[in-house]
Amino acid sequence: VEAINYENPDNLAEKVVFSDLTPLHPEDRFILETTVEELNMRIIDLVTPIGKGQRGLIVAAPRTGKTILLQKIANAISTNHLEVKLIVLLIDERPEEVTEMQRKTAEDVEVISSTFDEAAARHCQVAEVVIEKAKRLVEYGENVVILLDSITRLARAYNTEMPHSGRILTGGVDAGAMQMPKKFFGAARNVEDGGSLSILATALIDTGSKMDEVIFEEFKATGNMELHLDRRLVDRRIWPAIDISRSGTRREELLLDPKELQLIYRLRRVLSELNPTESIELLKGRLAKCRTNAEFLMTMNLD
């Protein structure tokens, strides 16, 4: 045996089991800013900074650009953080979306999928293999990122497959069916003494399904970062369709420099007085005039 999980077999004796690792708040930040023109990632860096070990929800209605946003996040992390192992997990997705994700992401991004024509049992199996692989890598001190599209469809698959407990929530969701998706999402953590598992998962809302609303409510308070995409912005052809006032990261002070944090607080105070359309348009306009986010924040300091 030459390697186990890409590591020397001799290292196996030293590793600590994932469940025994100490979880901490994210402290090291992923920088998503790449080029001047890539405003999507520059806005996310300002509005919802993402740390190593983040457990984030991208809350989105259909056709709000969540899949393209995941592609851009994958490419940004791949460009700026070469040490990170990146997995994109597509559950119950259209086959053409899988092909597009494979072609539009970098070569080192691992795209794993179970398309909508597969059985629910297959969706569950693929998700479990991915999360167990990620846990093993974290045990060796690796930084792993999973981009999941979507946790709603994964929860639906478990709702179909799990034996019914007899306790049915509103919308036909079995109370016991949420346990495994929560276990998947809850695995995201920053680990003491090295290693992290970050999970960014999309959650579907406004689909017309009561079940999807119940699933979102179950996951609403479990993450430590939320990014809301607004359908009203998409109707006006404004991208990224980020609702700045509803998006944010818990304990962002651990990820940001104190001076940077104060400038971002000032930015949020200004944007909070505007409606979602005005705030994103203003931010995009100001960012387009500056080459970097740091330069933009310095202009705010001068103002």
Automatic annotation (TrEMBL):
Keyword Zinc carried by entry: no
Domain AAA+ ATPase: residue ranges: 52-277
Keyword Transcription: yes
Organism in which the protein naturally occurs: marine sediment metagenome
Classification via Gene3D superfamilies: P-loop containing nucleotide triphosphate hydrolases
Protein name as it appears in the record: AAA+ ATPase domain-containing protein
Keywords in alphabetical order: RNA-binding, Transcription, Transcription regulation, Transcription termination
Secretion signal, residue range per the UniProt entry: none
A GO BP entry: DNA-templated transcription termination
A molecular function GO annotation: ATP-dependent activity, acting on RNA
SUPFAM superfamilies: P-loop containing nucleoside triphosphate hydrolases
